[in-house]
Amino acid sequence: EDLQAGYAMIKKRPVMINDISNEDRFKPTEVLTKHGARSGICVPMTARGIDGERVVGVIGVYYKKPKKFLSKDLWFLTLISNETAVALEKSRLNEELKTSRDFLQSVIEGIGEGFIILDRDFRIVSANRAYMSQEKTGRSVIGEHCYSISHHSEKACHELVHECPVLETFKTGVPSSGIHTHYNSGGKPFYTEVNSYPLKDSS
């Protein structure tokens, strides 16, 4: 807390120094001393996420002469810090999401049988190579409805009076299974056991 930026980060509030030569709360850093800084303002970059409010950094602006900071100075720098914090947090979450997706994909690739992940619209979010080989589509299936790939149909299985383990799992939140007749890209039918399992988030 003996540094201006550190204090702003820990206390989560802006810190202004009108004249460093008269300042006894904080020690000026070597960089500030080297460049002859005489006044400055530090504002924490605060972002809100599912885990609450967190400080992702600090923005500091310094001048080579004493300066009495006004409310408009604080408002402008706070605006910049908030926008920067949102951008940084979004970048962090995107990186975490990519890491999670890569890990999940590596897990399902380790499963020897055909395996896909579906959203609640029955669209394929992820598929392993075993599934691609099984269905013999010869193209990406991500974003496609599962029934359009496996049944060559524009309607979901339950709309065609087929037992749908996936729908049952969505309704009950527990695993379900059933025997389906699927068709590969050449229209050749084959029987397969369909097992569905719920994928739940931490909430």
Describe this structure in words.
The protein has 203 residues and is α+β, with helices and mostly antiparallel strands. Helix content is 35%, strand content 24%. Strands 1-2-3 form a 3-stranded antiparallel β-sheet. A two-stranded antiparallel ribbon has the order 4-5. Strand 6 and strand 7 form a beta hairpin. The radius of gyration is 28 Å and the shape is rod-shaped. The chain starts with a helix and ends in a 7-residue tail after the last strand. The model has no long low-confidence stretch (mean pLDDT 85).
Brief account:
The protein has 203 residues and is α+β, with helices and mostly antiparallel strands.
Number of helices, counting only DSSP H or I runs of 4 residues or more: 6
Quote the distance from N terminus to C terminus: 35 Å
Strand order in space, largest sheet: 1-2-3
CA radius of gyration: 28 Å
Shape: rod-shaped
> Would you count the extended β strands for me?
7
Question: What's the pLDDT, averaged over the residues?
Answer: 85
Give the topology.
Layout: H1 4-11, E1 15-17, H2 30-34, E2 39-49, E3 52-63, H3 71-109, E4 116-118, E5 124-127, H4 129-135, H5 146-150, H6 165-172, E6 176-183, E7 189-196
Antiparallel strand pairs: 1-2, 2-3, 4-5, 6-7
Question: Descriptors for this entry?
Answer:
203 residues; alpha+beta; 7 strands; rod-shaped
